[in-house]
Design goal:
Layout (H helix, E strand, L loop, with lengths): L2 E6 L6 H11 L4 E5 L24 H9 L5 H5 L7 E2 L20 E4 L14 H14 L3 E8 L7 H6 L2 E7 L2 H10 L3 H4 L11 E6 L8 H7 L3 E5 L3 H8 L11 H16 L3 H13 L1
Parallel strand pairs: 1-5, 1-6, 2-4, 2-5, 6-7, 7-8
Antiparallel strand pairs: 3-4
């Protein structure tokens, strides 16, 4: 199973929206962690449309559980602990519905901080979270981590080190190409992008530019491989960022782009034994 980190090195061009959309359409059971340290949770007032009370779950509570040394992956998913939200088990909401999941999909969400006043007090959390992520992965549940913007010498860098894939979000413009290029010159990321087995896990997730677009091939030539370019569709993206109603999801252009990107990344991160079985099936067919 896989641990996938979403981040930006040049601002925050849709990182949280993309991470949540990927989690909604991921082909396997998945837990989404909102791990932004500069802003409070956007999922609770956005995707969940303020339908849920802050007592239901959150990174605040995960930090307390870690401080007490009582957190396992089973604890995280246990509804009685109120650490994560089992989106697939939520009751139907009437006038302000939460965006629906694909049939049969299992998704848990750990909302980000509700109060930024505690962020400095839980600095030890980030070095310990990768062990929890790996335990979830070993149990057959993938992990998507929304880091939003990663700053120089960010305390959350251990999450990048332990992730199986790091998706770097950027707008397909010369401005962002230059910003990311210069950011990668700093030692904290330069060291991480050197050596076999390190740079290979980094991918760019570009956002289509409404003007003055730069080709994905230019990003790939100067920065790193490009996984996909997401279409410029603010209304479609608002389904995930703001909980906007989506009565015709098959016509949501942003959702279509997410599905294509998920297919590529899902194939890359499938367990080896599953890839082998699929290959044998194709040969037999």
């Amino acid at each position: 199973m896989a641990v996938i980190a979403f981040t930006s090195f040049s601002g925050s061009p849709g990182v949280s929206t993309a991470a949540l959309a990927f989690a909604v359409h991921w082909p396997r059971p998945v837990v989404l962690f909102e791990a932004d340290t500069a802003n409070v949770t956007s999922a609770m007032p956005g995707f969940f449309r303020s339908n849920l009370p802050p007592t239901i779950a959150g990174l605040d509570k995960v930090a307390v559980a870690y401080a007490r040394d009582i957190l396992t992956w089973q604890d995280l998913l246990d509804p009685d602990t109120k650490l994560s939200i089992a989106v697939h088990d939520l009751p139907t909401v009437g006038q302000m519905p939460i965006p629906a999941l694909p049939t049969g999909h299992r998704l848990w969400v750990v909302p980000g901080f509700f109060h930024l006043t505690i962020v400095d007090g839980v600095r030890g959390l980030w070095g310990r979270l990768p062990r929890l992520f790996r335990a979830l992965s070993d149990a057959g549940i993938d992990v998507v981590v929304d880091l939003s913007r990663t700053n120089p010498n960010d305390i959350r860098l251990p999450i990048l080190d332990q992730a199986d894939r790091v998706l770097v979000c950027a707008s397909a413009t010369m401005v962002d190409l230059n910003r990311v290029y210069r950011r990668l010159e700093l030692p904290d990321l330069a060291d991480r992008l050197q050596g076999i087995g390190r740079a290979e896990k980094y991918r760019l997730l570009l956002g289509e530019a409404p003007a003055e677009a730069v080709a994905p091939s230019d990003f790939a030539a100067h920065l790193m491989p490009v996984l996909a370019t997401l279409p410029f569709d603010p209304d479609g993206a608002a389904t995930f960022s703001l909980g906007k109603l989506d009565p015709r999801p098959n016509r949501n252009i942003y959702r279509q782009g997410i599905r294509r990107a998920v297919t590529v990344l899902g194939d890359e991160t499938r367990p080896t034994e599953q890839k082998t079985d699929d290959s044998l099936e194709r040969k037999a067919g």
